[in-house]
# Entry
Amino acid sequence: MTASARPDARRNASPYLHGRETAAVARVLEGGQYGHTDVTEEFEWRIADFLGVPEAVAVASGTAALHTALLAAGIGPGHEVIVPSMTFCATVQAILAVGAAPHFVDIDPVTLCVSDHLVMDAVTDRTAAVMPVLFGGRPVDLSAVQEELDERGVAVIEDAAHAFGSRHATRRVGASGALTCFSFGPIKNLTCGQGGMVIPRTPAEADMIRRLRILGVVQSQGERANTTSYRVEGFGLRYQLSAINAAIGLVQLDGFQVAEDTRRHLWRTYRDALAPLDGVTLVDVDVDHAVPHLCQVRVPHRDKVFADLRGRDIGVGVHYPPNHLQPAFAAWQRSLSATERAGGEILSLPFHQHLSETDIDLVVTALEQALKSVGGL
Ligand SMILES: *Cc1c(COP(=O)(O)O)cnc(C)c1O
# Structure
């Protein structure tokens, strides 16, 4: 038995608090208003300002962001939505939630993301939307085929749950003109505890998402105080972002530059430490543009390496088992060779802002030992 790993290397992912979150939450609790309040609205405009977009609409989770974005884009029964199988199951569940059908597509084996030709090869007359997943924080650029997608009436809805802070060439993800969805869940680049944000393309889309997130009720705060009733003008869900969560997000946003720099530094530290290891392929990220969300490698005998590392108390994970092979999505199964191959090789090393360079050395040494012991080197 090797000595058990340092505590931070035991976790694959972990929220990182900048220190003032507890006080910010306490202020909201003492203030007595916990729902969607001016704290939520401050968080919205601060995010819009950070990204350089006119407005941002806060919702209760990344899944709620995807769900309301699909509804706002008019996606529903009879529609097909092109989506990579290599994503978190939430992307697919959001498509099912609006009654549409997922059309699973393969990924580029190097980026683990869709590319413009993989998307265009899958477009049919029933395609109503495409959902690129910005896997690991990598921006996905569909600008070369944007005009063709527009002509065919195909909406682009970005699942940017991994990619808060990443940049396309110059603009932040969210500011490229696509309908963009962020998650601020516990382990994302920025966390609210639980939360999400939609970057709408038009004011009408923003209004629709605002109505959807509050049970279809349309009324300003002022109106609500002054009348005895309220108007339900359409379908809606309980999807607001509470002030408690928004207060956490505001502190996280203040500290985001530190988060961004730390994630890039840790990722480069891994890259340099992994370089001498034979048999290990780092899933590359252009960290000059992307804020890395994961540190993934591809290894032979992945399941054995995974078990061996877990035995050494190293918090490895797999992002993700392909969705087209999940029982719930069997009706839309198809053969996706690059996804299936990646699905059997990818391994996510511990990656979060509590890690030190010593932790990373320990993880890489353990990976080398694991590969030797399973015969992979
Ligand atoms: C986390 C995540 C989501 C869902 O976000 P939640 O805030 O957990 O609802 C969607 N897609 C991807 C790729 C994610 O990683």
